[in-house]
């Protein structure tokens, strides 16, 4: 009896020690494995630098960091805030960023021109009503897109998703807008000042800046670009260089898994509204009124081909581009 009691005691202590190794606060994967056993040891790189922007589009990245989804995959993500998608290209090429958020037009254009060899590793954001709008000052004589002929429109970067959406709108109203003559570059936070000062006639803005500008200076929307041929349009995603993907396929796949779970969580508007005040300047009291688009959980070549085809149509690509060739399917 004494031997049996000693054995039971030792066995109990052993089981308690094993149970304690995981730690009560350590995140788990969908299969129940802890981050240490699921990811870290098998990844080529466990700390990655990721480019992001303080816009609604990046809410899932913030959710993934906040809820430990990257940690559960053995990853530590160090975010770096960018002014625009075009800024991601040189930083990815130079290696200061491993993966970056950015708009598909900038990514596709840079790859097609041979400036960089990119792979799309995660979808990010899809447009919805009021997420991408053209705004003018409240007392502006501009009433329709047709009135934008010969006017100056603020965009965060030329030859990117903003200018293409505006040009599509212009075509629907029988006007041609020129990439160099009609557009002026301003970071999103500076567009309010540019409109107020009359430096530009209009601005193409995204949330939360559309809400800010409307509340602060009474600017009004003359056109919602998320309609017609660009309704439910793929706007942005996350990319890495082909070199980084080839050298770190398990790391990239871990990033993809975490982002897919985060994008799924972002389907619940409450999760997005809750996280927005934590990485943007919009207060929690106003977050609920924002226009929020969709967050696709998988990379769909057919969807992304819409972007490539529109770019070719509007002269942003000299030749057709096959979106499937730029997608990293994961391991």
UniProtKB/TrEMBL annotation:
Cross-referenced InterPro entries: Solute-binding_3/MltF_N
Chain ranges of the Solute-binding protein family 3/N-terminal domain: 47-268
GO cellular component: periplasmic space
Location of the protein in the cell: Periplasm
Taxonomic superkingdom: Bacteria
Signal sequence extent: 1-24
SMART domains: PBPb
Pfam family, one: NMT1_2
Keyword annotations: Signal
Similarity comment: family membership: Belongs to the bacterial solute-binding protein SsuA/TauA family.
PANTHER family recorded: ALIPHATIC SULFONATES-BINDING PROTEIN-RELATED (PTHR30024), TAURINE-BINDING PERIPLASMIC PROTEIN (PTHR30024:SF47)
Protein's UniProt name: Sulfonate ABC transporter substrate-binding protein
Gene symbol of the encoding locus: ssuA
